[in-house]
Amino acid sequence: MSKENKKVTQNDVAREAGVTRSMVSYVISGNTERSVAPETRQRILDVIERLGYRPNKAAQALQQGDVAFASRQIGVVLCSPDVFRRPYYTEIIAGIHTAAHEKKYHVRFIRFFEELKDPILFNELIHEEEIGSLILVSTDQCMKDDSDRAVIEKIRSRVKKVVCVEWQYPGLSSISFDRREAARLATEHLYFKGYKDIAYLGQNDNRIDGVRACLMEHNLDTSLEKVYIGSAFDMSGSYEEIKKIYEKTKTLPRAIVCGSDEVAIGILCYLNEQKIKVPQEVALISIDNIETSSFTNPPLTTMNVQKTAMGSRAVEMIVNGTAQQNENALDISLPTNLVERASC
After folding, report:
1. Which residue of 36, 115, 145, 278 lies most exposed, with the fewest beta carbons within 10 A?
2. ω into residue 253 within 30 of 0, thus cis?
């Protein structure tokens, strides 16, 4: 083997940096049990950069053992490919990646729930010699029957550290926000702004319960047919839903609680096209506070959800060992807060 093609080892880095091989190993692994002076750490990193050192994963696994090596590997499972096009979820994924990097953990793979129904792929990915933990993002959106629940049960039998993000599953740890409370607070904001004719358009979940709870508290109509005017998950869906409602009835509620900012943006687009003024004729409030919500016309009033924090806290639960199962499962609910703009 020529000198140019010789693989750089930790011994080469140690010799060049004037330190021991074990110190190089500590810096590379991110081990915090032993302190390394900042200038020494930087010198080692500079040598790694100069020599082009790359860790030998096979050797690391051999040295540490497959399970120990995999303990810092995190798998991520998403509900569907649509997640990558949804700004809400990209913030959650960004939180996962950033926290994993900071904690010296690695995202081993990102897969979709449907893929795990392939037994060959499942057996390849979901075991303790491949990953030490798994984060399931909004998987409830694609779970339809017992066969889906069987996949979750099979996962939890193989991987001890599992965190559900933005949803909950019995016996598994989770990090989420209270959808019902966020919708209740959004409705309450509309009520105290003077709106009484309030309806909900969005995902069919406990956000509806939050809207109805507020209306009931103030002795307003809580009948489901009055409150829940349509189902939508994204901008195109809400655009079509509000269009169908308006073309059929020629009337709209005075104020609408939107299940998400994307739902609100679709509604707002249609209202603008019809020259229906917001908030003068129809007021909107939504839930999420994605970046786009501050740039719509008018800017959306919304309940801020701690999206990046959900991703990062999931990683923290894995790192600090609180991502446990059954009676030791930990459920964390992050609070939401109102971001008032001009749509109501």
Report:
1. 145
2. no
Whole-prediction pTM: 0.82
The string of DSSP letters for 75-100 reads EEEES-GGGGG-HHHHHHHHHHHHHH
Answer for the pair 96, 312: CB distance below 8 angstroms, yes or no: yes
R_g of the chain, CA atoms, integer Å? 25
DSSP letters, 246-301, are HHHHS---SEEEESSHHHHHHHHHHHHHTT--TTTTSEEEEEE--GGGGSSSSPPE
Interatomic CA distance for residues 165 and 149, integer angstroms: 16
Can you read off the two tokens belonging to residue 235?
């901008």
List pLDDT tens digits, range 212-268. 999 999 999 999 999 999 999 999 999 999 999 999 999 999 999 999 999 999 999
Q: Are 338 and 303 in contact (CB under 8 A)?
A: yes
Residues comprising the chain, all counted:
344
Burial of 220 (0-12, 13-18, 19+ CB in 10 A): middle
Which residue in this structure is represented by tokens 């017992």? Answer: 146
Give me the sheet containing 161-165, strands edge to edge. 106-112, 73-78, 133-137, 161-165, 173-177, 331-334
CA angle 306, 307, 312 (to 5 degrees): 95
Query: For residue range 183-219, what is the model confidence (pLDDT) as tens digits?
Result: 999 999 999 999 999 999 999 999 999 999 999 999 9
Q: Is the pLDDT of residue 2 over 50?
A: no
209 three-class SS: helix
In whole angstroms, what is the distance from residue 82 CA to residue 89 CA?
Answer: 9
